[in-house]
């Protein structure tokens, strides 16, 4: 009988202990669900915040492929879902891939990380689109400043703990357009001032030369040996006078290709605005 009582007592203890464990498991399950819900809400808020930012935010895996990219990329013709798994360099303009190879797939952190890297990208709508620019034509296309750094599973950035790259691409297209417009205005101002001053300096001795040619023409017989030379000088003076007139009417900056691959001021195009107004 005593053995049976001991068995019953032990059984009751085991049942009580089991109930306590079940209660603890239920409590942990409720806590887990609550924590999971809080994480979902936090993730939703974070995603909403990221997608509200106009900058393109991206994350790359170990091979430099896109693991995440924010909705801001939609402005350039892509959908984030379609880009998952795409090498980031596939989006970079071929001429900029060499400098973007390490900058956009950055492994460094801290002061050594990539900051303000200027690169051009290819958009979904066009084959050749800029994401920093060199010409006024390119200034119409999107330009970006990229900052990026490596992600590590350890507190110190060591190779074994490398987990990928995170970066931000800021659209500076409007700033580039304004800079290009200011540069164009500055070039036009300098050109107009220089051309005006040069035209004034050339015009005075030119008038003297042409006046002397007219005097020589009157004093030289029509069949004289120097008559043709004097007339050639006068015609050259008229040509220079026309060039001076165009220089005085320059209102914009325009160039054309010249020998040796150089660009020179296109007087006809630069003074075109004046011609259209007259």
The radius of gyration over CA amounts to 38 Å
* Share of helix, binned: 40-55%
Main sheet attributes: strand count, strand direction, barrel closure: 5 strands, antiparallel
Order of helices and strands: HEEHHEEEHHEEHH
Number of helices: 7
CATH architecture label name of the largest domain: 2-Layer Sandwich
Strand content: 5-15%
Write down the domain tally: 3
> Could you tell me the mean pLDDT?
81
Name the CATH superfamily classification of the largest domain: PAS domain
Note the overall shape.
Answer: rod-shaped
Explain this structure:
There is one protein chain. The chain is an alpha+beta fold. Helices cover 51% and strands 14% of the residues. It has seven helices and seven strands; from the N terminus they run αββααβββααββαα. The strands form two sheets. Strands 2-1-5-4-3 form a five-stranded antiparallel sheet. Strands 6-7 form a two-stranded antiparallel sheet. A hairpin with a 5-residue loop joins strand 1 and strand 2. Helix 4 packs antiparallel against helix 5. It is rod-shaped. About 5% of the residues have low confidence.
């Amino acid at each position: 009988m005593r053995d049976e009582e001991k068995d019953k007592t032990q059984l009751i203890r085991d049942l009580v202990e089991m109930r306590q464990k079940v209660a603890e498991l239920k409590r942990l399950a409720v806590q887990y669900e609550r924590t999971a819900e809080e994480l979902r809400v936090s993730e939703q808020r974070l995603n909403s915040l990221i997608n509200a930012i106009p900058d393109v935010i991206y994350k790359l895996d170990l091979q430099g492929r896109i693991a995440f990219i924010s909705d801001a990329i939609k402005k350039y013709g892509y959908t984030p879902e379609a880009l998952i798994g795409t090498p980031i360099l596939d989006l970079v303009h071929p001429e900029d891939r060499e400098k973007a190879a390490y900058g956009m797939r950055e492994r460094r952190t801290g002061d050594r990380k990539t900051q303000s890297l200027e690169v051009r990208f290819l958009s979904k709508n066009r084959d050749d689109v800029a994401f920093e620019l060199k010409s006024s034509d390119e200034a119409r296309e999107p330009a970006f400043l990229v900052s990026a750094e490596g992600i590590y599973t350890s507190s110190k950035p060591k190779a074994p703990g490398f987990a990928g790259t995170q970066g931000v691409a800021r659209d500076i297209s409007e700033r580039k357009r304004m800079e290009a417009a200011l540069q164009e205005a500055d070039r036009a101002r300098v050109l107009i001032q220089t051309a005006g001053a040069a035209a004034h300096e050339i015009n005075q001795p030119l008038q003297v030369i042409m006046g002397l040619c007219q005097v020589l023409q009157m004093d030289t017989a029509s069949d004289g040996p120097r008559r043709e030379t004097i007339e050639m000088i006068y015609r050259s003076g008229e040509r220079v006078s026309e060039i001076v007139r165009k220089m005085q009417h320059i209102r914009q900056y325009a160039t054309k290709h010249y020998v040796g691959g150089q660009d020179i001021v296109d007087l006809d195009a630069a003074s075109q605005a004046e011609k259209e107004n007259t």
